[in-house]
Amino acid sequence: MKQKAILLIFTIFFSVTSRAQCAMCRAVLESEAGQATAKGINDGIVYLMAIPYILIGGIGYFIYRKYSTLKKQ
After folding, report:
1. Got the DSSP string for 39-51?
2. Do 44 and 18 touch, CB atoms closer than 8 A?
3. Measured between alpha carbons, how far is 1 from 61 in angstroms, rounded to an integer?
4. Per-residue b/e over 6-16, b at no fewer than 16 CB within 10 Å?
5. Which residue has the higher pLDDT, 21 or 29?
6. pTM score, two decimals?
7. In the chain, how many H helices and how many E strands?
8. Count: domains in the chain
């Protein structure tokens, strides 16, 4: 069960490519000659978006584990 959960997490976070920019950021960054800054902004946005999901998932896992061990006793 634990291996399936880890595999699911890695599949979700590493297989999805995302272009998460607001319209103003996109307009400014598309006018730039090199796209390195735009890629960095995209990566930062995805990083900031992923952290709350990871935290909530971890809390949910610990709650599930606590209740499952209480049922066994």
Report:
1. HHHHHHHHHHHHH
2. no
3. 12
4. eeeeeeeeeee
5. 29
6. 0.48
7. 3, 0
8. 1
